[in-house]
Design a protein that fits this description.
alpha+beta, 4 domains, 569 residues, 12 strands
C-alpha cells in the first residue's frame, strides 16, 4: 500500500508541502503596508508547493524556529488570544523574529522579499496589520503569507534553490550515514530519523498538529538497538512522497465514516462523474431506479469496451483514524475498477425499495443514511458496524447480521410509534435478504414470495388498513397493540385478528367491504395453513418487509390522498 501511495504522489520533494493559507499581508515594493487580503473562501486557498520544515528541524538547534513564507498569525503578526500566557507570548515573539530573519536572508537572493522583513519588524506596522486582521475577524489559528506589489512568492519558484540550501545547513554535521533497506522502495538508503506527520485526522481522533503513520518513540516499539524511524527505514524522499500523497487524499478524496475516514484513489485518474466512491457518499440520481440504471450503464460500457480507459484501472481504499498521535489503519481494500463499478451497481439494486406512497422506488440513500438507520443517533454507531457496512458496499460482501437486527429493531419502533418508515432502513432489510440469495425479494410487494412470514406481515397491513377504514383513528389501533406480538408469534395472534376483521367488514359499505374481503382472502391464500407459530430474527425481518410493502401497495391504490380509505377501483 505504501508503494501505491508513493506512485500516487506527483513531484514531491522534501522541504516542500501543500498548505492552505487564509490571509495575505499586502505591501508595496517600497515597504508600505496596503492591507490584509483574504485568500479564497472557507479555510483559504491551497498552494501546492510551500516551504516546510520537519518537526526535528523546527525544534533543533536550541532556538525557536518557524516555517518560511507561511506561518500562523501569532508568528507572522503577533496576533493571539488575550489570555495567552507570558511564556507563550515570548515563544511567539522569538518565532516571529526567526520568521523575519528567514525572509531577510532569502531577500539576498530574491530581491522582492527585501521590504517584507522590514515591515514585519516595524511595531506600528504590525499594530496596523493586527487591527485590520481583527476587523476581518481573523483567528489566531489561521495562517498568512505576504503579497508584494501583487507578487505572491508561493506562486513562484525563484526562492526554491535558496530554501534547499538553507535546509541542508540545518542538518547536524555528524549525521549518521549508515544505509538500510528502504521499507517502501527496497533501495539502500540513509533512513530519515522521523517521518512526516499525516494531517487532516483531527475530526476522527487525530491531533491538530498531525499524526505519525510510522512512530517508534517508546523502547517497547524498537528492535535491534534501532532508534526512531530506523525501525521502519525509509528515505526522506519516500517518506515525503507517501505522506504528501496521503495528506492530499485526506483533503480531496475521502469519505467521513463516523470516527474514521475512508481515503481512496485510483491507479489512473478518474473523472468526478465516474467516481464510484462519491456515488456512495452522495448519489447523483433522483430515484433509486435512476441510480441503478446509471451504475449499470457504466458497468456495461466497461465490459463492452466503450470505456476502455476504465477497464484496466484499479482502486485503493484505506480506512484510517487517529489514535494518541498515531495513524490507525483499520482496513485496506483494493481491486479492479470494474469490480468496484459492479459492487456499487449491486448496492443500488439491492437497496431499491418502494417509497412509502407506493408510486415509485425511493431515492437512493446516502451511505451514512444507511448507517444511521441502525441507531437513534450516529454518535451511537459502533465503528466495527460501520466498517462492515462500508466493506459490504465496496467489495459486495454480505451485510452483517447485526445490521439486520438493528434495522429490524428500529423499524419496529417506527411502526408501533406511528412514525414514517425509513426508506434506508427498509432497503437495508431487503438488501440483507437479497445478498443471502433470496431470489424472490423485490422492491415492490411480491404476492409470489414463498415465505409465510412475509405474507403474515402483508396480512397485518391489510387488517390495519381495514380497521382504519371502519373505525377511523382510534389511537392505539391493531398495529400499536399487536405488531410486536404478531411479528414474533403470528400463529398465536393472527387468527384472532382475522376473526375480528368480520366486525370491521360489517361496518363498511358493500363495495368497500367486498374489496377488503378480497384483499384478505388473497393474502390468506398465500399463507394457507402454514402460519408459523414463532418467527426467527430473519423471518421477523421478512414480516416487516411484507408489512411495509403491502402498505405501500395499498397507498398506491388510493385516490390522491393516501389517508383516503376509498380504493381506486
Amino acid at each position: 500500500m505504501l508503494d501505491a501511495l508513493i506512485r500516487q504522489s506527483h513531484d514531491t520533494e522534501p522541504g516542500f508541502t501543500r498548505k492552505t493559507v487564509k490571509w495575505a499581508i499586502a505591501l508595496t515594493q517600497d515597504g508600505r503596508f496596503t492591507g490584509v487580503i483574504p485568500l479564497g473562501e472557507g479555510k483559504g486557498r491551497t498552494f501546492e508547493c510551500c516551504p516546510n520544515l520537519s518537526q526535528p528541524e523546527l525544534v533543533g538547534g536550541g532556538e525557536s524556529r518557524s516555517h518560511f513564507l507561511v506561518e500562523g498569525l501569532p508568528t507572522v503578526a503577533l496576533l493571539w488570544k488575550e489570555d495567552l500566557s507570558d511564556a507563550d507570548q515570548e515563544k511567539f515573539r522569538a518565532k516571529h523574529k526567526y520568521f523575519c530573519d528567514l525572509i531577510a536572508r532569502a531577500s539576498e537572493h530574491v530581491s522582492y522579499l527585501e521590504p517584507v522583513a522590514k515591515l514585519l519588524a516595524d511595531e506600528p506596522s504590525l499594530a496596523e496589520i493586527r487591527t485590520q486582521l481583527g476587523q476581518q475577524k481573523a483567528k489566531p489559528t489561521e495562517t498568512a503569507t505576504v503579497l508584494i506589489d501583487g507578487i505572491n512568492p508561493l506562486e513562484r519558484d525563484d526562492w526554491h534553490e535558496w530554501w534547499r540550501e538553507f535546509r541542508q545547513s540545518l542538518r547536524p554535521a555528524n549525521n549518521d550515514s549508515r544505509k538500510m533497506r528502504c521499507f517502501a522502495t527496497g533501495e539502500m538508503v540513509v533512513p530519515v530519523a522521523t517521518q512526516p506527520k499525516i494531517k487532516g485526522l483531527a475530526g476522527v481522533g487525530g491531533l491538530g498538529t498531525g499524526d505519525s503513520l510510522a512512530s517508534f518513540d517508546k523502547q517497547a516499539f524498537q528492535s535491534y538497538g534501532l532508534e526512531q524511524s530506523a525501525n521502519s527505514a525509509m528515505s526522506e524522499d519516500a517518506a515525503t512522497a507517501y505522506s504528501e500523497a496521503l495528506n492530499a487524499l485526506i483533503a480531496d478524496k475521502s469519505v467521513k465514516l463516523g470516527n474514521a475516514l475512508s481515503v481512496y484513489w485510483f491507479l489512473e485518474a478518474v473523472e468526478p462523474y465516474d467516481d464510484q466512491f462519491s456515488w456512495l457518499k452522495e448519489p447523483l440520481a433522483s430515484t433509486q431506479a435512476d441510480a441503478e440504471l446509471r451504475a449499470q450503464r457504466l458497468l456495461t460500457a466497461i465490459r463492452t469496451g466503450q470505456r476502455a480507459d476504465l477497464s484496466g484501472n484499479r482502486y485503493y481504499a484505506l480506512l484510517v483514524s487517529g489514535a494518541a498521535g498515531r495513524v490507525m489503519v483499520r482496513e485496506i481494500m483494493e481491486g479492479s475498477f470494474e469490480d468496484l463499478a459492479q459492487n456499487v451497481a449491486r448496492w443500488f439494486a439491492d437497496f431499491a425499495i418502494v417509497a412509502r406512497d407506493g408510486r415509485e422506488t425511493a431515492p437512493p440513500p446516502k451511505f451514512m443514511a444507511v448507517a444511521g438507520a441502525l441507531v437513534r443517533e450516529l454518535k451511537d454507531l459502533p465503528m466495527p458496524w460501520l466498517q462492515q457496512l462500508w466493506r459490504a458496499a465496496v467489495t459486495g460482501t454480505p451485510l452483517p447480521k447485526v445490521s439486520l437486527a438493528q434495522a429490524l429493531s428500529r423499524a419496529r419502533i417506527d411502526i408501533i410509534t406511528n412514525q414514517s418508515a425509513s426508506h434506508a432502513r427498509m432497503g437495508l432489510i431487503k438488501a440483507f435478504h437479497v445478498r443471502k440469495g433470496d431470489q424472490h425479494m423485490q422492491a415492490y410487494v411480491n404476492p409470489e414470495h414463498p415465505s409465510p412470514a412475509y405474507h403474515c406481515g402483508r396480512l397485518l397491513a391489510v387488517l390495519a388498513r381495514l380497521q382504519h377504514a371502519a373505525l377511523g383513528d382510534v389511537g392505539a389501533g391493531v398495529v400499536q397493540r399487536y405488531y410486536t406480538a404478531t411479528s414474533q408469534t403470528p400463529g398465536l395472534v393472527l387468527g384472532r385478528l382475522a376473526a375480528n376483521a368480520k366486525n370491521h367488514l360489517n361496518k363498511l359499505e358493500g363495495g368497500l367491504s367486498h374489496w377488503y374481503e378480497n384483499q384478505i382472502a388473497d393474502v390468506l391464500s398465500r399463507v394457507r395453513d402454514n402460519v408459523p407459530r414463532t418467527l426467527t430474527l430473519e423471518q421477523q425481518s421478512l414480516f416487516a418487509l411484507g408489512y411495509y410493502q403491502q402498505l405501500a401497495a395499498l397507498n398506491a391504490g388510493k385516490k390522491g390522498d393516501t389517508n383516503n380509505d376509498t380504493p381506486n377501483t
